[in-house]
Write a structure and sequence with these properties.
72% helix; mainly alpha
């Protein structure tokens, strides 16, 4: 039996082994994710689900803020983070396989993913964040282990298949509800004085009526009030409510969006293998990604948001009249476009300061991600300072900027003295079953981050 090569494999990677660009990209992504997550922390349902009616935001500055964020940024930073996570799978395994040709790289990898899964559960049920991504990332990472040897072309094809499946899923959900409305409306035109409704028709009619009632402004405001009471309430009430939402997201929710996650992880694996992610591709590739991606993505996103405004965020009317869902398609284009733009900034050498500023944030991405949940929970939840639902939409982005400032400052300060962020250190120590050195010494070693 092969002995575990702990001295070699469990050693912190040297500064020379780091790909510092990935750290910077990870820092940009982890800060950008909070732009979207902040609505879940700060706003009640259904306000965080693109409903401006319940808090009387239509026609105000809040509508403009909502539109800009949804139009330009929604999902793009999460996509970049997924791309980097996919690349990290290849990066981690390739380094381990160079050091050991037996089964230890796979052993370390799956142990690493399983500990990430555990951290995800802690994030969901201790920090009580229901949109957490560590759990699904851990599961998807284990799936992608099977595809690690594929060539970039095959990985891009796999991403395309995931895009197709996710788009089909979006529209399957849409047309199930359209069918409920269509069947119900046919029944409403039936003259019940002549034709008595059977049990199936009554159920179909009730399904349509229920969907219409849930979509009314009165019903949406009632849901909002219930949400406010639960999140602002005592710990027991809040914990029950939030943990139930986390359970839904880590079961039904994860299997709903698994193709979304895998799509960008496949792209990350491909982009790392063909040099796009490490900045080694021809400059024209990044120009094409930027121009085509942003042009198509922003146009599609603009058209995607118009029905929300036209139908005043009424889900019944939206579902009845919209013919095709293309959120995932628009997001893919926008995300690739923003990635291309970031890489052009990097290649221009005019923004070295930005990438240097983001690098420590990315090296501590795992810690900073959890820290965002802690700080937002402390500020917004009723068991903290209780600002949930008390700030207007535009005001919650001041909280985002404050957290960005804190995380940038603290990441730079921490890594002056330590090799790892606190949770990066813990994760790595658990992965190798060996306590890692934390304080820096003259060997100039550093951390891998959440790659």
């Amino acid at each position: 039996m092969t002995n575990q090569p702990t001295a070699t494999l469990a050693a912190p990677i040297s500064q020379q082994e780091r790909i510092t660009l990935l750290d910077s990209l990870r820092g940009i992504a982890i800060l950008g994710i909070l732009l979207m997550n902040i609505t879940g922390f700060a706003l009640p349902g259904p306000a965080y689900r693109n409903d401006l009616g319940v808090m009387n935001e239509i026609g105000t500055i809040n509508q403009k803020v909502w539109f800009v964020v949804e139009w330009a940024f929604e999902g793009s930073q999460r996509a970049l983070f997924s791309i980097l996570f996919g690349a990290g799978i290849i990066l981690f395994l390739s380094r381990q396989e160079k050091r050991s040709g037996d089964l230890w790289p796979a052993d370390y990898f799956f142990r690493r993913q399983l500990w990430l899964l555990v951290f995800g559960l802690i994030h969901a049920y201790v920090l009580l964040w229901f949109w957490e991504i560590l759990f699904p990332y851990a599961c998807c990472g284990m799936i992608l282990f099977t595809f690690r040897k594929l060539q970039p072309k095959a990985l891009i094809i796999a991403a395309g298949i995931c895009l197709l499946l996710m788009t089909l899923r979006e529209n399957a959900d849409l047309y199930r509800e359209k069918a409920i409305i269509h069947q119900g409306e046919i029944i409403t035109r039936t003259d019940t004085t002549i034709t008595k409704l059977n049990a199936e028709q009554k159920d179909q009619l009730q399904a349509m009526v229920s969907l219409r009632e849930r979509s009314s402004l009165e019903s949406r405001k009632k849901e909002m009030e219930g949400n406010l009471q639960k999140v602002r309430g005592n710990f027991a009430t809040f914990y029950k409510y939030q943990s139930e939402r986390s359970f839904y997201m880590e079961t039904v929710g994860m299997f709903t969006f698994i193709w979304d996650i895998l799509l960008f992880m496949f792209l990350g694996m491909a982009f790392y293998k063909n040099g796009i992610l490490t900045g080694n591709a021809p400059i024209k590739i990044y120009w094409l990604m930027c121009i085509i991606g942003l042009s198509a993505g922003l146009i599609l996103s603009w058209y995607r948001l118009q029905p929300y405004l036209t139908y005043q965020f009424n889900h019944f009317n939206y579902t009845k009249n919209v013919r095709f869902e293309f959120y995932e398609i628009s997001r893919v284009f926008r995300s690739i476009g923003f990635f291309g733009l970031i890489m052009l900034l990097y290649r221009s050498n005019l923004f070295k300061w930005l990438f240097a500023l983001m690098r420590p944030v990315g090296q501590m991405a795992f810690t900073n991600y959890l820290m965002q949940s802690f700080l937002c929970g402390l500020f917004f939840y009723g068991i903290g300072f209780g600002y949930f639902g008390k700030l207007e939409r535009y005001q919650i982005y001041f909280v985002v900027f404050a957290i960005w400032f804190i995380e940038i400052i603290w990441s730079h300060a921490w890594l002056r003295y330590f090799r790892f962020g606190p949770f990066e250190w813990l994760w790595r120590s658990l992965t190798y079953w060996k306590k890692q050195p934390l304080k820096k010494n003259n060997s100039n070693t550093d951390t891998m981050g959440i790659s």
